[in-house]
Each structure stands twice: as C-alpha cells, then as structure tokens.
Amino acid sequence: MGYFISFGHNNVEVKGVNKRRKKADPLLIAILIGVFIVALTFDLLKWTFNIPGIAWVATAGVLVLIYFARSYLNERKRARMIEYRRQYLQKHGELKQLKQMSPNEFEQYISDLFVQMGYNAFVTEPNGKPCEDLIVSFDDFFATVVCRNGENITVTPEEVRKCESSLEQSNASIAFFITTGDFEEQIHSQSVKLINGKDLMKLINEVTAETKGGQMYQPFKLLQIQ
C-alpha cells in the first residue's frame, strides 16, 4: 500500500491506495453450507438407526413425560390467573365502588368479568356506535356490550332502541346493556340483555364463587340471568 501527502490551503490530506479485495462467491458459500447440512443429516440418520430399541422406548417415555409436565404447568398457570382475576373482581365488585369508577375503569372491569366467565373480551376504541363499549365472543357466539356506571342512572327506552339498531349493523348475536343503575319499567327487548345493578351484583357473586381456586365458569350461564 502506498501513501502520498498533498499540501494546499494549509490542510494536510493523507490518501491511501488500497488493493481491491475479491469478494467470496455467494454460490460457492451456499454449496459448501448445503454439503455440510447433507453430511450432518447423513451422520444423524446413521446414528439414529444404530440406537437400540430400549433407547427408543426411553426417549419416547421422556417425550411423553415432558408433554404431560408442560400441560400440567400450563394448567397451573391458567388456574393461578383465574384465581388472581377472581380476587380482583371480588375486591372491586361492590356496587358503590363500581359506581365511582371512571367509565374506562368500569368497562375494563366488565371486560375482565367476561374473561373470567370464559369469553374472549376486549374494550373497543371510541367509534360513536351506541352499543359497542366491549366486544365479546365464544366460539361462534358474538355479542356487543354497552356499559353505564355512575350515581342515579336510569336507562331510557330510547337508549335500548339504539342498541337494538346497532345490532343490525354489527351482525352480533345479542347485545348486553350493563349498568350500575336501573332501567325504566316499560323496557323490554328480545335482542338486548338488560343487566341492572342488582343483576350485576348477582352475576359478580356467582362468577367469583364458581371460579374460586381456578375453576372454569360456563359462559352461557350469563344468558340465564333474568
């Protein structure tokens, strides 16, 4: 490698003349890697066929043991999550507390309640639709949920009718209208399940009792609430 120094305008510049390096051929590298993999596979197969029968039985036993151990640990983890959620729902499940929650906190609480009952549930982004605070599902079952909490709430027929109309657009099986207050007496709906404060307390108590210790709750019991 040679160097030269040039002077100009009181600056010193050093430049190097490098020889070009020849790049490795990607095709050659790929061929070498392929040969290595084939050779490794051949040796592995050769070693496998030389394993005695008792070794195969032992290997199968270990794999079965690993499978059941993993299933057991996953079940324990799931049960702990159910129990942890149950304690949270029970701790914050007094009607007075629910009334004092912010709308977002109440929606998240109801979402957790649905999850505890075995549903898939999530809080939706604000979209202007009157009955889609939550989306819940279970297999082919799909429903929307509207949540209303606070002091002195009385749900009007007009609010329920808006939910009925939104069902036609969402293709949901049913809608749930859940409130810490109550509904006007003349409200009746075939497509919207009405759950007032009293019903909500009953549901929370039932869910937290049945899921104690990590047990599962039967999702469609929710539809039996009167």
TrEMBL record:
Pfam families: Mrr_cat (PF04471). Residues 98-204 form the Restriction endonuclease type IV Mrr domain. InterPro entries: Restrct_endonuc-II-like, Restrct_endonuc_IV_Mrr, tRNA_endonuc-like_dom_sf, Type_IV_Methyl-Rstrct_Enzyme. GO terms for biological process: DNA restriction-modification system. Keywords: Membrane, Transmembrane, Transmembrane helix. GO terms for molecular function: DNA binding; restriction endodeoxyribonuclease activity. The chain crosses the membrane at residues 27-47, 53-73. The keyword Nucleotidyltransferase does not apply. The keyword Disulfide bond does not apply. PANTHER family: MRR RESTRICTION SYSTEM PROTEIN (PTHR30015), TYPE IV METHYL-DIRECTED RESTRICTION ENZYME ECOKMRR (PTHR30015:SF7). This is Restriction endonuclease type IV Mrr domain-containing protein. The lineage of its organism: Bacteria, Bacillati, Bacillota, Bacilli, Bacillales.
